[in-house]
Each structure stands twice: as structure tokens, then as C-alpha cells.
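Extended Data, panel c. Modelled sequence:
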Amino acid sequence: MELSMKGKRVLITAGAGGIGRVMTETFVKAGARVHVCDVVQSAIDETVKSLGVTATLCDVSNLEQVDRMFADAGRHLGALDVLINNAGIAGPTGRVEEISVSDWQRCIEIDLNGMFYCTRLAVPMLRAAGGGSIINLSSAAGRLGFPYRTPYAAAKWAVVGFSKSLSMEVGTDGIRVNAIQPGVVEGERIDRVIAAKAQAVGIGFEEQKRISLERVSMRSMVSPQDVANMALFLASDAGAHVTGQAISVCAGVEMLG
């Protein structure tokens, strides 16, 4: 199975930390030329130094910053073959009546609006390149209910609808669009989510972690590398006829809560 990305030009949002950082490393190792954006300058500096990528400091919810990021990507890469919309935040945890309007808006602005802001600029570049791949990060929360996490779940369900609709719109241009739905991904971010949920329902961290994994068929978390591997497959020639799909990488999440 050919998973080489040699010569491919790839843009990864939030590509200097977490899952995005692992994606960046994976695509560089596969031969891609990569431009990343992130909101943490120190993470950008480390990623540029260690992986030889180019980068832009950018909050994807800010239109002006997204415009600048795409101008940088065009200058450094020359063209675009792959967009990975990875940027996202966990959003607030709490009962719906406890969630502030500003927290709701911030979650939607980053997890959904930012994806649109990037995609609307990427599609003309992909079309000009003769086709390519857009990979949008959804979540297991984008196919299951997620109590106490309504802003996040709403955004991630919307990502699936956005991806499916866009795949139908740009398929004749040779552009594939898919969503990845990670489950419980090991790392600091999920630890913060578990801690917030534990506090919201009044139990301890370890008890909430145990409950969360009891609802996973394999009783395990997935790794950032698992998610990066799926992205690589979808972007490569091996995934040349996969489009319009929401693909779970989740060890069999049965329920979120």
C-alpha cells in the first residue's frame, strides 16, 4: 500500500502541538512539504527547528490571521495538495444553562467557523493543483450524544455535515473530503476534559476515567499516532477513492458521558 507523500504540499492547522504535532511529523516522514499554524509561538519555534517545516502564528477563528496564514503557505509551498483542519478546543463543560454565551461562541468559532475560514481559501488552491484532499477533525462526539459538552458536540456534528456536503460539491474537481472522528485520545487534553467532567458530576478523576473507558469496546484510549495514520491514509494515493466519509478512530466508543 503506497502511503508516500513525496512532493505533496500540506497545510495542517494547530500543527505544532498535540495530535497536530504528530500529524506534522508523520507527513514530514512520508516526504511531504508541510506548513503549519498554531497559537503557541514556542511550539511553532520547536516544530520549525526540529522538523524543518514552515509556520504561521494563527488563530483560525480570526479572518485576518487566516488570510495571512494562507498567504504564507502559498509563498512557502507554492501550491496546495492537502488541507488538514485539525484546530479545535474542548470548549466548556457544564449543564446547558450554566454555559456562558461567550464560551459557546468561542467553541463554535474555533471548532466550526475556523474550519470554514480555512476551507474557503484552500478549495481554489486545491482545484488549481488538479485536486487533492481535505481532512476535517470531528470527534466521537460528532456521532454520539455527549452530556455536559453540548457546544463541542454541536460543532463536531456540524463538521460531519460540512464534510459530507463539501465532498459532493467538489468531487468533480478531484477533491476528496473526509472527517476523522477520534475517540478518547491519550494526552494532556483528555486529562483536562476528564477532570472537568469529574468536577461537574461530583466524582474523582480516576473514577471518571474508569467510567469513560468502560464505554469503549476495547477499554483503551487511542494514540495521536493512530489518528495521524488515518489522516496519512486518506491524504495518500491509497485513499484515492475515499470521500464523503466520517471515519472513527476510537477503539469502539459506544457512549460518551
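The domain at 9-186+223-249 is CATH 3.40.50.720 (Rossmann fold). This feature is highlighted in the accompanying rendering.
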